[in-house]
TrEMBL record:
Residue ranges of every copy of the Histidine kinase/HSP90-like ATPase domain listed in the record: 294-387
Pfam family name, one: HATPase_c
GO BP annotations listed: phosphorelay signal transduction system
Name of the protein in question: Signal transduction histidine kinase
Coiled coil spans: none
NCBIfam families reported for this sequence: HK_morpho_MacS
Species this protein is from: Flexivirga oryzae
InterPro entries: HATPase_C_sf, HATPase_dom, Sensor_HK_TwoCompSys
Residue stretches spanning the membrane: 56-78, 84-105, 126-151, 163-182
Tree of life domain: Bacteria
Keywords: Kinase, Membrane, Transferase, Transmembrane, Transmembrane helix, Two-component regulatory system
Length: 396
């Protein structure tokens, strides 16, 4: 059995998350370096003012920052736990570490410097929110932490010139958009792979049914007609099942979109009985999918009429031509033909197969159905479908 096996990561944003942890560990190194410099600074602006009022507590907070960064980084990178509660906890810890600046740093110092965990490290929370919840949440988080930092530093008057807000906002929005695009692309790829696998399986089953069951049913139909009597009835039933199976196979194709095109040739081949003679171009004959669906329905109606009215032993011939500006499909049988006046009589009796199922459908497509028939002359339908500008002609 032919199978399609394609491995797709369950989380398309996983590379983003892992890359973000590289940034996280770099920001931890920066925060530790800034802490060492600040604690060891004897003065601020040579005025004799020390940076920290509680150096020991500041080191405890930095230790919390390091531990949390390691734990959350491993969870994010290797999906060790659901990310949503971890992101919420990260927001809380980041906010508390930022606010703790006022507890351990002298006002004279932090009014002119960044908050304790550093803006660089605060960016991690913005990145996590953007990757998990998208650009809007990421942008709002970036602006929120920017305002929190400016408030602690009492630098609101510099909000226009300070780089913190545009940097955090840009990071949140940009990464959020990137994560959404990748997630959407992964969903589309997964759907395409599933459709490909289902299509190949349908094609395999169609080939097996066509090469086995349909051939046997077609043989039973022909032999039953030749033998007559009860065998003829069995042959007729076999013919009905053959046609039902062909219809089922042709209808198993995935439903295409309105703007998509389909190969008319392959769809006709799937719908035709095994004893029909079909001639078509070597290349695909591409038409809009709704047009192909209607044309195949018209052909089925014609074939049903051949089966019911053309007489025993009638053969069917189909010719598909791609003329560039139009597609012409000729369906002919060598049966008994249609007597003069028979179509008008059928229409008056409410049997609308020709007028609606054939001519009506062709008119809806902007085409026409031409009929040539007569007693003992067989029946020939010539179906013309014009191409509209921009349709793929399916030829080099």
């Amino acid at each position: 059995m032919e199978r399609v096996v394609v491995q797709i990561d369950s989380d398309a944003t996983l590379p983003f998350w892992r890359g973000a942890q590289v940034f996280r560990f770099a920001s931890v190194a920066y925060a530790i370096g800034a802490q060492i410099v600040s604690v060891n600074a004897d003065t601020f602006n040579h005025s004799g003012i020390r940076a920290y009022s509680h150096p020991l507590i500041s080191w405890m907070l930095i230790a919390l920052l390091v531990i949390w960064s390691g734990v959350s980084g491993l969870i994010y990178a290797f999906e060790l736990a659901p990310r949503a509660p971890i992101v919420v906890l990260e927001l809380v810890i980041t906010a508390l570490l930022t606010i703790s600046t006022v507890w351990v740093v002298r006002p004279e110092y932090f009014h002119h410097h960044q908050s304790l965990p550093s803006t660089f490290w605060i960016t991690n929370a913005v990145v996590s929110v953007a990757l998990l919840w998208g650009p809007i949440a990421g942008g709002v988080t970036g602006v929120g932490f920017s305002l929190l930092s400016l408030g602690i530093e009492q630098q609101f008057h510099n909000i226009v010139t300070d780089a913190t807000t545009p940097i955090l906002l840009t990071v949140g929005v940009t990464l959020g958009i990137g994560a959404r695009i990748v997630s959407r692309a992964q969903q589309e790829l997964s759907a395409a792979v599933r459709m490909q696998a289902a299509t190949k399986e349908r094609e395999r089953l169609s080939r097996e049914v066509h090469d086995g069951t349909l051939q046997v049913l077609a043989l039973m139909r022909r032999r039953g007609a030749d033998l007559g009597g009860e065998a003829a009835e069995l042959g007729r039933l076999a013919g009905q099942q053959e046609q039902a199976l062909r219809t089922l196979i042709s209808e198993q194709a995935p439903v295409p979109g309105i703007d998509e095109s389909t190969d008319l040739r392959s769809q006709l081949q799937a719908a035709l009985p095994t004893d029909a003679n079909f001639s078509a171009p070597a290349d695909a004959v591409q038409l809009p999918s709704p047009v192909v669906t209607e044309l195949v329905a018209v052909v089925r109606t014609i074939l049903d009429n051949v089966e019911q009215h053309a007489g025993d032993g009638a053969r069917t011939f189909l010719l598909l031509e791609d003329l560039g500006d139009e597609v012409v499909l000729t369906v002919r049988d060598d049966g008994v033909g249609i007597p003069d006046g028979r179509l008008a009589e059928a229409e008056s009796q409410g049997r609308m197969g020709v007028s609606k199922s054939i001519r009506g459908r062709m008119a809806d497509l902007g085409g026409e159905a031409l009929l040539e028939t007569g007693p003992d002359l067989g029946t020939e339908w010539e179906l013309h479908v014009p191409r509209i500008d921009g349709q793929d002609e399916g030829r080099e």
